[in-house]
Amino acid sequence: MEEKHYTYLLLCENNKLYCGYTNDPDRRFQAHLTGKASKFTRANKPIEMVYIKEFETKSEAMREECRIKKLSKSQKEELFAKKIR
Fold first, then answer.
1. Does residue 61 contact residue 24 with C-beta atoms inside 8 Å?
2. E strands present in 1-85
3. Which segment of 1-5, 56-60, 79-83 scores lowest on mean pLDDT?
4. Is residue 44 within 8 Å of 16, Cβ to Cβ?
5. DSSP label at 2?
6. 55: domain range?
7. DSSP at 57
8. Helix, strand or coil for residue 16?
């Protein structure tokens, strides 16, 4: 079975957004919640994974992460407004 790769956005309590890559979204979100995933989410408590996109390869997922990180906050919000609502 091929491993899947994901790019995701987290919404934090202070309305900040965090973008990342993982091959296991549930495990990664739990790591963020417990403060073990990144310095950013230790300081900005995540409350919800608001966007997730699956890719076949790690390089595709990481390219998408890089692309999203270059977007403005309103553009990032548009991503998950379309995806979730």
1. no
2. 5-12, 17-22, 46-55
3. 79-83
4. yes
5. P
6. 5-84
7. S
8. coil
